[in-house]
Amino acid sequence: MKKAYAFLATGFEEVEALAVIDVLRRAGVDVTTVSISDDKLVTGSHNIPIMADAFFDDIKDSDAHLYFLPGGLDGTNNLGAHKELCQLLIDKFNEGRHISAVCAAPSVLGKLGILNGKKATCYPGFEEYLEGATVLTSDRSVRVVTDGNVTTSRGMGTSIELGLELSAILVDRETADKLAMGIQHL
What we know:
about 190 residues, alpha/beta, seven-stranded mixed sheet, 7 helices, 11 strands, about 35% helix, about 20% strand
């Protein structure tokens, strides 16, 4: 079974996180939600509290196939300020593990050099922070971009598609297609 970590920081965008987590779990991926604060109860950008499965210190020495960052402006800023998480993302990217971010969160990857030479997308207005990337936000039909071991997505409205893309990568395309039909994402 494939393993994924979804990192939650105060101010994360709830739908971006939960839609991706839900789709991945439906695909059979073992997703652990990880609080980067000192409390497992993490409050999102719309004041919805979510109980994380683990603390960062619980998982920092273990491996996963996917490391996922939901957006939300405050959440993104908090993710980017967590030095140990940032180092973990760099290390796992360099090991060839899959890294994904949505909305404003691809800016964290850009600042870490993870997007150098990659195609990527983000929430419009954050393009300048995708350092080293070929940014594909001018084409509104481009909603999710995978380039090598990095997948980025535009925002809340693209979260189901992001979950399906990650399911296809971690499990297989057939499973992702069956999920899309099952949840009526046609």
